[in-house]
Specification:
This protein is mainly alpha-helical and 64 residues long. The chain has one domain: Arc Repressor Mutant, subunit A, CATH 1.10.10.60. The chain has four helices and no strands. Helix 1 crosses helix 2 and helix 1 packs across helix 4.
Length: 64
């Protein structure tokens, strides 16, 4: 149960961080590395949740 909560929190953190960066500097200028650095997670972690930065953006508008 705790692990599932942590996974959900990490997913939300990545979504929120990505949105903030997209708004601040634009979608095209934002990289996955910038998202993960800002969120404080490894780049590999991003790809455990999303295949692309487009997918993270789409997930905000059509949640799991």
């Amino acid at each position: 149960m705790k692990k599932e909560r942590q996974k959900k929190q990490t997913r939300i953190l990545l979504q929120q961080t990505a949105l903030q960066l997209f708004q601040k500097q634009g979608y095209e200028q934002t990289t996955v590395l910038q998202i993960t650095n800002e969120a404080g997670v490894a780049k590999r972690t991003f790809f455990n949740y999303f295949r692309t930065k487009e997918e993270v953006l789409q997930s905000v508008f059509s949640p799991m």
